[in-house]
Amino acid sequence: MEIKEFRVKISDVVNGYVDKGDEGVFGYDGKLTIRPNFQREFIYKDKQRDAVVDTVFKNFPLNTMYWSKNQDGTFEMIDGQQRTISVCQYVKDGFAPILDGNARFFHNLTKEEQNRILNYELSVYICEGTEKEKLDWFRVINIAGEVLTPQELLNATYAGPWTSDAKTYFSKRNCVAGKFAEGYIKGNPIRQDYLEKVLSWISDRDGVDSIPVYMARHQFDEDANELWSYFQEAINWGKSLFPTPRKGITDSQDWGILYNRYKDNTYDPENLEKELIALTQDDDVTKQSGIIPYLLSDRTVNDEKYLSIRAFTENQKRRAYEKQKHICPICGKEFKYDEMHGDHIIPWSQGGHTTDDNLQMLCKECNRTKRDH
Question: In the chain, which residue ranges form alpha helices assigned H by DSSP?
Fold first, then answer.
């Protein structure tokens, strides 16, 4: 791969600047794709965006940017999208940062100040090489301090029609997936949280080892209709069983994983609702997000792990140990404190609580034997 240093004026980059939404962002008289299909949308916060303009306004240096050169002589931006869009939006009067103590659109600047910005030279490295070489390079570059998420890197590696279509459903602000699953999903679609989640679900359904393997298989599919249909099936199934959305509960589920595992089971939504309410009011349940997986499971002792049932404190166990005079009530033998475990006399599943009057200290062997039965 060949890399060359290049300097370009902001005025040249802004020339022909256009944001076509899903189709991409372009500049440099149409010769530069500022946001290729494998990169994230604009994610800078106002302070970051304003800081870029202030840096240019004061004629301080911006970090080096990276472009790749295509065979037809056009360019794609590998690193620098956020900074470039910030500058272009400003010149197009898109926002008014605080400059010299005042909020100023580009048209508010003096002619001299405008020319200072337009003549500012960006430092760019242009690389030429194979697609694999350019994507490998992209994987190790940080975007102005905004480190790429694993899913963003995968989007770059498996760029193609399937990935582009999947992103229209799961990776846009106010995307259709977020609206459809409101109250049943959480995360930042721009940082690919929704896409990563549904890919993990469908990979599990298909018995695929990992998300990269699934994406590799479908990279050149014409569309991502199967992925979108599956997402709707999983979310609709969850809504049918738990129709009332609850923050921290319904929005914290891996609905696809639950759907893959339990979709053939029969449940009564009214009973599930009553049981869910009861568990939210149980002081011994310390993990609210685990209530739904527990309700859908076989509800064995092992399934109580979903709820993280409150454990006895050290003080409670010490009191019980002394009260029992160090004797295990099942085998009648004496043990050291660290050779015993705190045990619910009446199991939590049968209505027992994590209280002193429901605590007994058992030796390790008796505790194991009791749990096995």
Answer: 10-14, 46-57, 81-91, 111-118, 131-139, 150-157, 161-170, 176-180, 193-205, 211-218, 225-241, 255-262, 269-280, 291-296, 314-323, 364-372
Least confident interval from 41-45, 166-170, 278-282, 320-324: 41-45
Kindly tell me if the per-residue pLDDT of 132 is higher than 80: no
pLDDT of residue 299 exceeding 70, the answer is yes
Q: What is the CATH number of domain 314-372?
A: 1.10.30.50
Q: Exposure pattern of 273-302 as b/e (b: 16+ CB <10 Å)? A: eeebeebeeeebbebbbbbbbbbbbeeeee
pLDDT at 284: 92
Residue 20 CB burial class (10 angstroms; 0-12, 13-18, ≥19)? exposed
Residue 117 CB: number of other CB atoms within 10 A?
20
Q: How far apart are CA 293 and CA 363, in angstroms?
A: 31
pLDDT in tens, 177-231: 999 999 999 999 988 999 999 999 999 999 998 998 999 899 999 999 999 999 9
CA separation, residue 88 to residues 85, 99, 125, 205, 235 (Å): 5, 17, 19, 44, 40
- The β-bridge partners of 26 are 18, 33
Domain ranges of the chain: 2-147, 149-265, 273-310, 314-372
pTM of the model: 0.64
Cβ-based neighbour number of residue 53 at 10 Å: 23
Cβ neighbours around 360 below 10 Å, total: 21
The sign one gets for the Cα dihedral 154, 155, 157, 160 is: positive
Contact predicate 154/195, CB 8 Å = no
Question: Positive or negative CA dihedral for 79, 83, 86, 91?
Answer: negative
